[in-house]
Design a protein that fits this description.
- The chain is globular, with a radius of gyration of 21 Å.
- Strands 1, 2, 3, 4, 5, 6, 7, 8 and 9 form a nine-stranded mixed sheet that branches.
- The protein has two domains: 147 residues, D-Maltodextrin-Binding Protein, domain 2; 153 residues, D-Maltodextrin-Binding Protein, domain 2 (3-Layer(aba) Sandwich).
- The longest helix has 20 residues.
- Helix 6 packs across helix 13 and helix 7 packs across helix 9.
- The protein is 42% helix and 15% strand.
- The two termini are 32 Å apart.
- By secondary structure, the protein is α/β, with parallel strands linked by helices.
- Strand 1, helix 2 and strand 2 form a beta-alpha-beta unit.
- The structure holds fe (iii) ion (FE).
């Protein structure tokens, strides 16, 4: 019975979804249907500029990556989606491994390593997952690796968001890739034991918690610190100023990054427009716009990071092999559950 209901719901979504959402090209109107996990003001402005310059209207559906991937899977060839944008490449690789994406040839100026080798996705930006530490209470010489944060010397000092975050799932995947699943379990247990409080809020909330004395060490993406430092709200600026940025694992595999990228869906109804979109979003102009508005790292080799970001210095990047293996994500989620990491 449950199975029949599931089929019914699935076919209901498959039948009604596209009719509600699919923007038919009946007139000369050009459209691009975007499924996105990104949640930034900068996107809205960049999309508006894209429409102004190309005449292609963007229809945006925002949700978490897992939800968007399930939706693509259920909609199948009736999906209205042209592109899938995620905040981490592991999710794009998962969509790819499920046959939900297709290769396209876009003409871009990407840095090496920021395009899927099969051209199923193109990076839009990247962000480093770093250690933000309380400048007053932490001696920077005490910091070294992600692994070291499980050391009991950090008891009651660690602030980190929930394990449902793509960023944390991807970080743990990299730890499984590097150290194996048993070591990853120990690490997750150690972090849970060292938490200053139960995970809550986003990365910015972890930094604010340092500023209000709840903990000393937060694991966050760099652009959130950039957003705080450049906020109109003086309290946020103060929170941003209370922390130093430390790039972990520089003596070893390098610091973890989250690649936010654009994948072209298997059944994209407006495939030509997806290529225009990828080329536009990774153009020099728009990459500069992102660098100085969302404080992410540009993927275009002609564009430098914003001065706020550049001030943290260069760093060695983890080689990303983990992101090529979507099964690591499943393992990571299991490890988090077993560790009781909410
Ligand atoms: Fe984010």
């Amino acid at each position: 019975m449950r199975y029949i209901i599931l089929i019914f719901i699935t076919s209901l979504i498959a039948c009604t979804g596209p009719k509600e959402n699919k923007q038919e090209n009946t007139s000369s109107e050009q459209v691009l249907n975007v499924y996105s996990h990104r949640h930034y003001d900068a996107d809205k402005a960049a999309f508006e500029r894209f429409t102004e310059e190309t005449g292609i209207k963007i229809n945006l559906v925002k949700a978490g990556a897992d939800e968007l991937i399930s939706r693509l899977e259920m909609e199948g060839e009736n999906s209205p989606a042209d592109v899938l944008i995620t905040v981490d490449a592991a999710k794009l690789n998962r969509a790819k491994s499920m046959g939900l994406l297709q290769p396209v040839d876009a003409n871009t100026n990407h840095k090496e390593g920021f395009i899927d080798p099969d051209k199923n996705w193109y990076a839009l930006t990247y962000r480093a997952r770093v250690i933000a530490y309380d400048k007053d209470d932490v001696d920077v010489s005490e910091l070294s690796t992600y692994e070291d944060l499980a050391n009991e010397k950090w008891k009651n000092k660690i602030l980190i968001r929930s394990s449902s975050s793509s960023y944390n799932q991807s970080l743990l995947s990299s730890i499984i890739h590097e150290n194996g699943v048993e070591a990853a379990k120990e690490w997750a247990n150690g972090i849970v034991a060292n938490m200053a409080r139960d995970p809550k809020g986003g990365d910015r909330d972890q930094i604010k918690a340092i500023a209000s004395g709840i903990g000393d060490i937060a694991v966050v993406n760099t652009y959130y610190v950039g957003l705080l430092l450049n906020s109109d709200n003086p309290e946020e600026v103060k929170a941003g100023q209370s922390v130093g940025i430390y790039f972990p694992n520089q003596e070893g595999r390098g610091g973890h990054i989250n690649i936010s990228g654009i994948g072209v869906t298997k059944y994209a109804p407006n495939k030509e427009n997806t290529i225009k979109f990828i080329e536009y979003m990774t153009s020099d102009d728009i990459q500069k716009f992102y660098a100085s508005n969302s404080f992410e790292y540009p993927v275009n080799k002609n564009v430098a990071p914003d001065s706020t970001v550049a001030a943290w210095g260069d760093f060695k990047i983890d080689d990303l092999d983990y992101a090529k293996n979507p099964e690591l994500l499943d393992e990571a989620i299991k490890v988090f559950d077993e560790a009781g990491w909410n």
